[in-house]
Hints:
Helix content: 25-40%
Order of helices and strands: EHEHEHEHHEHEEHHEHE
CATH topology of the largest domain: Rossmann fold
Number of helices: 9
Low-confidence stretches: none
CATH class of the largest domain: Alpha Beta
Mean pLDDT: 89
Binding site for GTP: 57-60
Binding site for ATP: 8-15
Largest sheet: 5 strands, parallel
CATH architecture of the largest domain: 3-Layer(aba) Sandwich
Distance between the termini: 32 Å
Number of strands: 9
Keywords: ATP-binding, GTP-binding, Nucleotide-binding
Strand content: 15-25%
Oligomer: single chain
Radius of gyration: 20 Å
Domain RapZ C-terminal: 162-279
Number of domains: 2
Domain RapZ-like N-terminal: 1-150
Amino acid sequence: MRLILISGLSGSGKSVALHMLEDSGYYCVDNLPAPLLPQLVAQLQAEDYTRVAVAMDMRGGRSIAALPKQLRDLEATGGIEVRFLFLDSRDEVLIQRFSETRRAHPLALGEMTLAEAIGREREALDTLANLGHRLDTSQLRPNALRQFIKDLADLDAGQGLTLLFTSFGFKHGLPLDADLVFDVRCLPNPHYDPLLRPLTGRDAAVVDFLQAQPEVGRMAEDIRRFVADWLPAYVRDNRSYLTVAIGCTGGQHRSVYFAEWLAARFRDQARVLVRHRGLT
């Protein structure tokens, strides 16, 4: 059985992720109290379910504190491949999302403000953030989140580190989930060419422009060499995911090119995912 567990802050995109997994053929359960997880898994195993996704968060109350132990027990159980995904987002983004949807935060009770409720939830979930892969959805559009969840669900089973290359724009803030961050803002910017401005780092014209700059090639090779040199150390550290973030000003041209370029060179060394925060 492949079991994907989803947790995280309210408003960070858990419903989007769960719906994507359901559309991909997973049996999905939302808002499950953590103590009931072993019973659910045993029942679904007995009924020969092979792909299951479960969302657990603060709506289940204080029982969420039992999740780390439940996760350890499941990982020690034979026949179950467990992946844990924690969705996060910056406070100001969460406030904006709740304001736009006019939904009430599950902890916003009595005299508590929305900001206070988010702060209390973040504190309560702090111990869960590093149980698996932490995904910052602050600048991630719903379609991009759906694609990432689909890629995660489609990864082949088995042990090994997943190497995630993500592009981002510094003007939107650093990603919360980055393990390594590289700044490519010092390189020539296609944004200043009117013909290249509406394109992205995946378009041939932008690729040709950047590949014609000698300093782009030097920096790309320096980053590749650094990641290659230290990747074995992260593997020995029993990491499930390593997120390498490459940032430019807007997250549209240079960082996208670098993420794609690096991903192509590491696909024979690790399981590789690519995510672009500034693109749909």
